[in-house]
Design a protein that fits this description.
Length: 156
């Protein structure tokens, strides 16, 4: 009985711990991403002494016709009136056409850095907002099921 009580107590306390990860994904209607559809993601930063890893998460079918995706990433910082914009290419396949992500049947899932090495440092506390827009030549972009971001705190 004591072991059962300890296990229940541990599960209860672990539910109170704060997570070092933020992840949110948005499904795309009919597996097509229109350039006018700009999903946005808001998260709070309280620890400005740590570094974070920032990833694009994307899920597509095996019929996705490109080996990459070009994005316009718009970032709004706390107490900032004008967001910063960055155009970035995210590779999704190797030169030989093999997908870089994890696949299950005809669905592929990627977790790719949104900048060169994925490391980001937030110098201000508060609410941040990241908006993603696909800027590929084909519009709507076919065979994209969902898109999102994942932010992981680097724990030393």
């Amino acid at each position: 009985m004591k072991i059962f009580t300890i296990v229940i107590l541990l599960f209860t306390l672990s539910g109170c711990l704060t997570s070092n990860t933020f992840e949110k994904n948005v499904g795309l209607p009919h597996n097509k991403w229109k350039s006018s559809f700009k999903p946005s993601f808001e998260f709070d930063i309280t620890d400005t002494s740590s570094n974070y890893l920032l990833f694009l998460t994307i899920r597509h079918t095996d019929a996705y016709p490109f080996s990459n995706i070009w994005l316009n990433v718009k970032t709004s910082l706390p107490n900032q009136t004008t967001p910063t914009e960055m155009k970035t290419e995210v590779p999704l396949a190797q030169a030989d056409g093999k997908w870089l992500g994890r696949g299950m049947n005809e669905i592929w899932e990627h977790k790719m850095p949104l900048n060169n090495n994925g490391t980001v440092h937030f110098s201000n506390r508060g609410k941040y907002k990241i908006e993603l827009q696909q800027i590929m030549r084909e519009n709507p972009l076919p065979e994209v099921m969902s898109v999102g971001i994942r932010l992981e705190k680097i724990v030393n």
